[in-house]
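User: Here's a protein and a ligand (inosinic acid). What would the complex look like?
Assistant: Let me lay out the input and then the predicted complex.
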Amino acid sequence: MRTIIVGGQYGDEGKGKFISHLALEDNPEIIARGGVGPNAGHEVHYRGKRYPMRMLPCGFTNEKSRLIIGAGVVVDPEVFLKEVEMIGGDQDRCGIDFRATVITAEHKERDATQTPGKIGSTKSGCGPAVMDRAGRVAKTVAEVDELKPYLTDVAKEVNASKNVLVEGSQAFMLSVLYGTYPFCTSKDVSASTIAADVGLGPKSIDHVVMVIKSYTTRVGAGELKGEISVEEAEKLGFQEYGTVTGRPRRTSKDLHWDDLRFAATVNSATQIAVSKIDIRFPGNEGKTNYADLTGEAKAFIEEIEKNLGVPVTLVGTGPDATHIIDRRKEIL
Ligand code: IMP
Ligand code: MG
């Protein structure tokens, strides 16, 4: 089975948590990261520790899975090497496609000075690195000595295995093509592009899991329908702060149905994962059985299924990787 996980809103839907669950549950031989680059911050809680992952796949929680980064990702060598250390320093376990683009100090400098301030970029150098790749003047990871031990052919690896989990980053509404342009990231991040990032063709994918949060948040600028104030969001327990930048996230209480339907279509989502049901509906903390959810929470999940026409197979009920309801065996 080859599964891709993507975000359905503005990022920070809780992909990291579902990825670490699938990694432990499905035992993927390979976990491959697509998406833009270290502008992503996936937060993984594992054995009482918090891991803010920006480059390596969040599925590191399964110690048997190989962790690789696709050709389409722009790589910050410093961030990558730090994360390899953070998860235990095993060089043989981690790899980067030799074709991937390097983020240089100059890219970060340009992101800080040239990316229009109104976009609220994470300033991690991703946009300028993507631009230089398109301009055919970028360096590849093969030109960085410290990365030599990690170079591999990710495209060949993922096509040679039948048990692959592919991790997207950012989210549909931040896509440079389908999102809220120009308030968006520097690449398309829908499932097809994520697949191409790691070298998988459209017919090589069995499942697309689109992750949504029980309410909507966004960091940086751009439209956010139904936005509420930080005070109101704090009162509801919805207020969040960014993993990469520490910025307070903007909040809307609503799910934006038209956007979500469009996201499910373009991503060809076959499953929906819903995070933070316990935050939206107190009384559901740490539940692991669907039957144990409150009536309100169940009605909400049914509403999502009815509106998107896609089954909700995974439900997040708390921060820990084990705080999850997995309905795949019943539904699929
Ligand atoms: P950039 O991709 O760092 O240039 O940022 C462009 C916009 O996308 C900004 O509003 C960022 O906050 C947002 N963004 C980029 N990556 C992520 C992510 O992983 N989660 C949430 N927002 C992101
Ligand atoms: Mg994030």
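Summary: The longest strand covers residues 207-213.
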